[in-house]
């Protein structure tokens, strides 16, 4: 045991966050609020037969992260087919750049962004030609 099986993204505005992650990554959501006793939406991130995990958006229970605050938790990174197209969707849907696109030489393109709720996340496009 010890394998990551679920993630939670803390959000201040549930509808805004669902729109952001739905529009950018195509996630769908299931209302699990009755189980959690608070606004809590299961996030289906892809097909069950593909690598990856599902998670949830949950109502933030404290203050939102401050601008330019150092990361003080886990950062989720999403695999994407086209880095530049995904970055455009992030910006169009209210996200901002935290760390611009850079090469992991011979492996992938990587970068970090801030969602509409102030959370940092990454995107990763495999590319053996990245340099």
Short description:
By secondary structure, the chain is of the alpha/beta class.
What report would you give on this structure?
With 131 residues, the protein is an alpha/beta fold. It has 3 helices and 8 strands. The strands form 2 sheets. The protein has a 4-stranded mixed β-sheet. A 4-stranded mixed β-sheet has the order 5-8-7-6, with helices on one face. β6 and β7 form a beta hairpin. The chain is globular, with a radius of gyration of 15 Å. 20% of the residues are buried. The model has no long low-confidence stretch (mean pLDDT 95).
Structure classification: alpha/beta
Backbone CA Rg: 15 Å
Which residue ranges are poorly predicted, with pLDDT under 50 across at least 5 consecutive positions? none
Q: Could you say which overall geometry the principal axes of the C-alpha atoms support?
A: globular
Keywords:
131 residues, four-stranded mixed beta sheet, 3 helices, 8 strands, globular, Glyoxy/Ble-like_N
Give the helix/strand layout.
Elements: E1 7-11, H1 14-25, E2 28-31, H2 33-36, E3 40-44, E4 55-59, E5 76-79, H3 83-92, E6 96-104, E7 108-114, E8 120-126
Parallel strand pairs: 1-4, 5-8
Antiparallel strand pairs: 2-3, 3-4, 6-7, 7-8
């Amino acid at each position: 045991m010890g394998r990551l099986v679920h993630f939670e993204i803390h959000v201040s505005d549930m509808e805004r966050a669902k729109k952001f992650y739905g529009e950018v990554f195509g996630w769908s959501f299931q209302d699990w609020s009755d189980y959690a006793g608070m606004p809590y939406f299961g996030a289906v991130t892809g097909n069950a037969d593909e690598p990856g995990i599902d998670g949830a958006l949950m109502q933030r229970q404290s203050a939102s992260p401050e601008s330019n605050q150092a990361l003080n938790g886990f950062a989720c990174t999403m695999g994407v087919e086209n880095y530049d197209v995904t970055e455009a969707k992030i910006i169009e849907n209210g996200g901002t750049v935290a760390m611009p696109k850079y090469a992991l030489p011979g492996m992938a393109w990587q970068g970090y962004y801030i969602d509409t709720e102030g959370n940092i996340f990454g995107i990763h496009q495999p590319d053996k030609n990245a340099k």
